[in-house]
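Q: What does the assembled structure look like for these inputs?
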Amino acid sequence: MTIFYYFCFYLFGLVAVASACVFVTRKSPVAAALWLVNVLFCLAAMFVLLDAQFIGAIQVLVYAGAIMVVFLFVIMLLNLGEPARIADARGTIWYIVAGGLAIVVLAAMMVRLPHPAPTETFRIAADSLAVEARATGAVAPVAVPLFTEYLLAFEVTSVLLLAAVVGAVVLGRKRNEGDGRATAAQSRRLEEVAHAR
Amino acid sequence: MLADSLFFSAVLFAIGVVGVLTRRNAIIIFMCVELMLNAVNLTFVAFAQVYGYAGQVFVVFVMTVAAAEAAVGLAIIISIFRHRQTVNLTDINLLKG
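A:
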């Protein structure tokens, strides 16, 4: 653990926290989404620093690449790009509630619980992840337990994905009987937008 | 390194909680949930460094579930927008007592 390692870790961590703060305070959904992409990239870098190279790559590909593109696509599709005309933030009471709850969550997570004995017996040798990754590559140590020890969970996940695909298609589809109403509502909205301009 | 990772994870999770509670835009609330999921992933990876690869396997599962959840959730938001012409959660109050 060189000083450069710590410097990089804290740099990415602080950038992630700062980006997250900017992300929750943006009015425009597009700006918020792009700041969230920044947070996800910093987290990917932290995963790599924590000897999880494969997870870092997946984070960039799946989260920053796929999920956030879907978010931006929906924002574009619903034409929410401009900052909301309606007030987006809730009232002051919600800020107080949220701040209090955040402090409680932080305190609960950071309080130093007494270290239970069994965790020490499962502890692996320091740097053994890096050694194993150097010996067999970064993917194999994650893939082998995924397809042996956790095979059932993996198969259940594939069923979940199938259900999600079917559900998304069914929910996103335009219904035939609703077509006329939807187009009427859309034209009404277009008129409203034109009127606002 | 474990303690530092858990610190950042806790801070990111708390920021996600604040976002969910203070915003009204359904899409932004959804993105805050994704942020909370990522904070948990950081915890998993940090523990994997100390206790073995099972944590990293779980991160793969969490990411899969998050992707499925994003697909279905955004489809629901599109569906709501078609009916109500808004994604403002205070306007979608049919079940409010």
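Residues 53-77 of chain A form the longest helix (25 residues).
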